[in-house]
Amino acid sequence: MGDAPSHARFESLIVWQKARLLTAEIYFLSRKKEFASDRGLAWQIQRAAVSVMSNLAEGFERGRHTEFHQYVSIAKASCAEVRSQLYVALDIGYITSEEFTATMQLADQVASLCGGLRASLERKIKAKS
């Protein structure tokens, strides 16, 4: 990544690690009986969660701040999709309010980390211009 050490890996990113936890939690919740029977919503929220961690990994591996910035933006948007779908799952009774709150806190944390990373990348891009 320009000035990143050659041994740096996307797995070392805190945001990716948190996105991985979020994805696992989404899979856990969406495999519960009633939620799992709604294949459309279950598939959509799983896909969105996987998109968060996948875009972080892909953007990092591209090795350029400008491209990484773009992928982090996509990851942040996918995180918003997860959060929106959590409301659906709550509103129709697929998850409890406790499950919603805990998962939403994790999703908010991932979104915040994405925002911070995006801002950091913007500063690095501007500094090189």
What would you say this structure looks like, in words?
With 129 residues, the protein is an all-alpha fold. It has a single domain, classed as Up-down Bundle (de novo design (two linked rop proteins)). It is built from 5 helices and no strands. Helix 1 packs antiparallel against helix 3, helix 3 runs antiparallel to helix 4 and helix 4 packs antiparallel against helix 5. It is elongated and about 50 Å long. The protein starts with 13 loop residues before the first helix and ends with a helix. The N terminus is likely disordered.
Do you know the CATH topology? de novo design (two linked rop proteins)
Major beta sheet, specifics?
none
Shape designation: elongated
CATH class: Mainly Alpha
Helical content stands at: over 70%
List its traits:
129 residues, mainly alpha, de novo design (two linked rop proteins), 0% strand, elongated, disordered N terminus
Please provide a brief summary of the model:
The protein is mainly alpha-helical. 81% of the residues lie in helices and 0% in strands. The chain has a single domain (10-128), classed as Up-down Bundle (de novo design (two linked rop proteins)).
